[in-house]
Design a protein that fits this description.
heterodimer; A: 806 residues; alpha+beta; 65% helix; elongated; B: 192 residues; 4 helices
């Protein structure tokens, strides 16, 4: 006996140790990538890059509220200064003209390479004349006196032209030298983190750094840390950090509470600490093996997969319940009636295999979160079932006993019997009627039944999303949801692409389809373009002649323009502008935000701005796509982040529905093979299908749109419920008079623990957990009730009716 | 004895203080008169004399003032442009572009526009924050010369010279440190 025990326990312990080692070594990721495709198309890849590393993902919008605007301005200045000294932030902007002088010097020095007005024609005698006339007219405006010092150097007005181009998009309002919202109620800052938005740990550190800078600045400004001033932050990183904390909090709290409740139920049933501890072994082993399998199979474990670990408890705890309670029956009947392994294990095994079939359908999903959940559940369930079957029996201490729960089973049996007293035809009719009602509800709402927006899974509250939108409009930030992406093998290639895209985009601006657009080429033209401009500048002698000819008859003295002639000659001889030249100017940050570089691939981003004051802030993406398509630009795409992510999610949903139906077909085949009777298969599946339909219809009636997690919940209903139906079916076909009271008790207790666990989830504020809870808790309960009524062997008189119903 | 010896100096002191009071009184009278006006609209012609150009550039338009702190300079010819100073915010609109600036971030603009607005408002305190004031004349016809206090501003603008009669401004001349100047002549629009 001892050798046999060792042969079983040793491999189990070795397996557990290996799993612990893998779990400890595994790489855990908490970013959005659980929701992003595993094998992306090029466009999807760019989408993923954007969401994970794009400049938009690195922005933290900061607002200071309450207190006087003067005080807020001081705090803003203090915070910006502190954060600018922190290498974790690549840029901090609060409206201060920190590098205005350097910006001006840079633009002025390179004006003949940066201005898109520079052509050979402009420097001919006629071109110069037109440009100089315009400059003289400009002198007649109020700003003329201030600008006149520029004229001898820049009579063609290139500097003003560049500034006008860069200032096409209006920044926020300034008050007391810093940015404020249009109503002046909020002081605004924008920080760009050095770390990617998907690096939630780094984002959390950065948020803490901002809070620290805020407190320090408040103390420095007001002389005390106590202030009415509020710090509020928003942005993708803020949301990611908040979501993670929220899920962690909810998952921890709920699993503690539900574990305590389930433990309480089990303790009151078993009256045995040993049974309780032994009963948790399959659960713990299953969870360990599940995570280890995911780590091995996927290389990294998504945090969200761990979050769903709680769901596994729902079914794996059942196994040990069945084992302990049904073992009592063997004791009651005497060992002659056969061991638990012979009597009940085949049924549990079939139930387990049914669940595995259901979850296996998730494996091929392109949604990494779902595929991981599938693998996790399969390995976890198999491990839990194996531990129950092989390890628990040998671990039972001699004289192990739990309380006899026969009275509970008899009580449940009386309830079941009272329902079954109804005529079989009536029961079958009621079941059919329920199915028809549910189906008609679902059919009537089929258009709005599924929520196809990824945000339906987002734990970010609507209030926070609105606040984010408010800050974005305060800042006049580009609509970062719509952008043009130009890809290429080098910076030069994507800058040229951005320059080519400017033509169709400008026509869209003129047509009023979009308000404006940003382009990295506005900050730094491609070398080719710069070269063109440089070579269009005439040499000194020609320019002198042209200036003389142009000035003849104008009010400008030609001899005043010798600085101009020197500067043009310097530009002609000078080097082209490179990224290094941008360094130290505020343009560097603007440029950096619009360029993405990953190994050998470059992307230029051209964010689109909606038309100012438009009724809807949405951009007609189809028209933008059409305009770009007509221009035949290479490797240039319109990316509508919201539409694309929603489309992606909708495709997952579609795929998940299809896969779940495949899983259902697989379950059907398995049961046909195992039970070898279509009638029995129908009797087993009818209550489960009915439970799923009833829950789906119930949610629809309550106005709850279904998400991918509801679908997973339905799979769980089938997984958990199949055990119930199989037990009732088994008891019926083996010609035992009735499902024994002990079996009934074990089902009742297993069901109670499932309903407690998932019922608590439905109170969660996290949409993914809530969806699972509100599906599985009622579904599991209904599956038990329907199984008890429909599957358990009815009195002989109703047998024919039962057949009809099946 | 001692009394007679001291008498002339006392008389001198009294004389000086009377003269100073007269000038101060006149400035206060003008300021008071100006402050009494809630709204004003005049047309202007502005000539800029720049050493760069052979002849002055001329622009014209209208100046609209609403007490206490809103001044709009609308240039109509030759290039339409609007300069609106309201409170602390300067909005420049020009060929579809609009720029919003905060006055205190651009102190170099102050002599060009705050000089006129603060004068129209009769706000002596505001003027004295930025300029040293030299007043001559009396309420019927006065000249106010404003010299920037800030050295940085003084590098660009030597002085702003405003001429007026009672609560009307007649002429604003801005003299730059390099000798260039602009001369703005104000007229009540036809019909007023």
């Amino acid at each position: 006996m001892n050798a046999r025990r060792a042969r079983i326990i040793a491999p189990w312990l070795i397996g557990v140790a290996a799993a612990v080692w893998i779990v400890a070594q595994a790489n855990y990721v908490t970013d959005l990538s659980a929701f992003l495709p595993a094998k992306p198309t090029p466009l999807q890849k760019q989408l993923v890059d954007q969401l994970r590393n794009g400049p938009a993902s690195r922005l933290i919008l900061i607002a200071l509220e309450d207190d006087e605007s003067q005080v807020r301005a001081h705090v803003s200045l203090g915070m910006a200064q502190r954060l600018r000294n922190d290498s974790e932030f690549s840029n901090v902007d609060n409206g201060e003209p920190v590098s205005a002088e350097r910006d001006r010097d840079f633009l002025f020095q390179h004006r003949y390479l940066l201005s898109n007005a520079v052509t050979a024609q402009r420097f001919s005698a006629a071109g110069l004349r037109t440009a100089i006339e315009e400059t003289i007219e400009n002198l007649a405006t109020s700003t003329g006196l201030m600008l006149k010092s520029l004229v001898p150097h820049d009579p063609t007005g290139e500097m003003l032209h560049i500034i006008d181009e860069l200032a096409r998009t209006q920044g926020p309002r300034t008050q007391n030298g810093v940015w404020v919202s249009a109503d002046g109620a909020r002081t605004l800052l924008v920080a760009q983190t050095a770390a990617a938005g998907s690096d939630t740990d780094a984002q959390e550190r950065d948020l803490d750094a901002i809070r620290t800078a805020f407190r320090a600045s408040v103390t420095a400004t007001t002389g005390s840390a106590a202030s009415a001033m509020q710090l509020r932050m928003s942005g993708p990183g803020v949301f990611a950090v908040a979501a993670r904390a929220k899920i962690k909090r909810a998952a921890t709290r709920l699993s503690v509470v539900s574990s305590l409740l389930v433990i309480g139920v089990l303790l009151s049933v078993y009256r045995s600490i040993a049974a309780l501890i032994l009963g948790l072994l399959p659960v713990a082993t299953g969870a360990l093996f599940g995570i280890a399998a995911v780590a091995l199979g996927f290389g990294a474990v998504h945090g969200i997969t761990l979050g769903f670990g709680i769901t596994l408890i729902g079914e794996s705890v059942d196994y040990s319940i069945y084992f302990f309670i049904q073992s009592l029956r063997r004791d009651a009947l005497g060992s002659a009636s056969g061991s638990w392994q012979r009597l009940f294990w085949p049924t549990i095994r079939l139930g387990m295999l049914t669940s595995v079939c259901g979850f296996a359908s998730l494996l091929p999903s392109g949604f990494p979160g779902l595929a991981q959940l599938g693998l996790y559940s399969i390995s976890g369930l198999i491990a839990a079932a194996m531990v129950t079957r092989f390890v628990l029996p040998v671990l039972l201490p001699p004289g192990f006993k739990i309380r006899d729960v026969t009275p509970l089973g008899e009580w449940l049996g009386r309830h079941r019997d009272s329902v079954r007293r109804f005529d079989g035809v009536a029961v079958a009719g009621a079941a059919c009627a329920l199915a028809i009602i549910a189906l008609s509800v679902l059919y009537r709402q089929h258009a709005t039944l599924w929520n196809r927006e990824l945000s339906s899974l987002s734990p970010v509250s609507l209030r926070d999303q609105r606040y984010d939108a408010t800050l974005r409009s305060d800042l006049g930030a580009a609509n970062v949801l719509d952008l043009i992406i130009v890809g290429g093998p080098s910076l030069e290639a994507v800058l040229r692409g951005a320059e080519r895209a400017k033509v169709p985009l400008q026509s869209l601006v003129d047509a009023g389809t979009i308000g404006e657009f940003d382009s990295p080429a506005d900050y730094l033209p491609s070398l080719a373009t710069q070269q063109n401009r440089r070579s269009s500048l005439p040499d000194r002698r020609v320019l002198q002649d042209n200036v003389r000819a142009a000035a003849a008859g104008l009010d400008l003295q030609a001899d005043q323009l010798s600085p101009f002639i020197d500067d043009v000659e310097a530009a002609r001889q000078g080097a082209l502008v490179t990224v290094q030249d941008l360094h130290g100017t505020s343009l560097a940050a603007g440029f950096g935000a619009l360029i993405l570089h990953q190994s050998d691939h470059w992307n230029a981003l051209l964010p689109l701005h909606a038309v100012n004051g438009a009724a809807t802030p949405d951009i007609d993406v189809d028209r933008v796509t059409a305009a770009l398509g007509a221009a035949h630009l290479q490797d240039t795409h319109v990316l509508d982040l919201k539409d694309q992510t929603d489309a992606l999610y909708a495709s997952y949903l579609q795929e998940a529905i299809r896969l779940s139906l495949c899983g259902f077909a697989l379950i059907l085949l398995l049961l046909l093979f195992a039970l070898r009777s279509p009638l029995r298969v129908a009797r087993v599946l009818a209550p489960l299908v009915l439970a799923v339909l009833a829950v789906a219809a119930g949610l629809a009636v309550c106005g709850q749109q279904l998400t991918i997690l509801h679908l997973v919940g339905m799979l769980l209903i089938v997984a958990v419920g199949s055990n119930y139906a199989l037990f009732f079916d088994d008891a019926g076909t083996k010609q035992r008079d009735e499902t024994s009271p002990l079996t009934l008790a074990s089902l009742g207790i297993a069901n109670l623990s499932t309903v407690i666990g998932f019922g608590l989830l439905s109170f969660s504020q996290v949409p993914v957990l809530e969806a699972l809870g509100e599906t599985v808790a009622p579904g599991a309960f209904l599956a038990l009730v329907f199984s008890a009524v429909l599957t358990s062997r009815p009195p002989p008189a109703a047998a024919s009716a039962d057949t009809a119903d099946a | 004895m001692s009394m007679t010896l001291h008498l002339p100096s006392i008389c001198f002191a009294v004389l000086i203080s009377v003269a100073a009071d007269a000038a101060a009184d006149d400035l206060d009278d003008v300021m008071h008169a100006l402050a009494g006006r809630r709204h004003g609209e005049v047309s202007f012609v502005e000539q800029q004399f720049l050493s760069l150009l052979k002849k002055p550039v001329v622009s014209s338009g209208e100046l609209i003032y609403d007490a206490p702190d809103r001044l709009q300079k609308r240039t109509l010819e030759p290039h339409p442009e609007s300069l609106l100073l309201s409170g602390n915010v300067l909005t420049v609109e020009r060929s579809h572009h609009s720029h919003v600036l905060e006055l205190q971030s651009y102190p170099q603009v102050l002599p060009y526009i705050e000089s006129i607005r603060a004068t129209l408002a009769g706000d002596r305190t505001a003027l004295e924050r930025i300029f040293r004031l030299q007043f001559s004349g009396n309420l019927a016809h006065w000249t106010l010369v404003l010299v920037p206090l800030d050295a940085q501003i003084a590098k660009a603008v030597a002085e702003v010279r405003i001429e007026g009669a009672k609560s009307d401004l007649l002429e604003v001349q801005i003299r730059q440190a390099d000798g260039d100047r602009s001369l703005m002549t104000l007229h009540a629009p036809v019909g007023q």
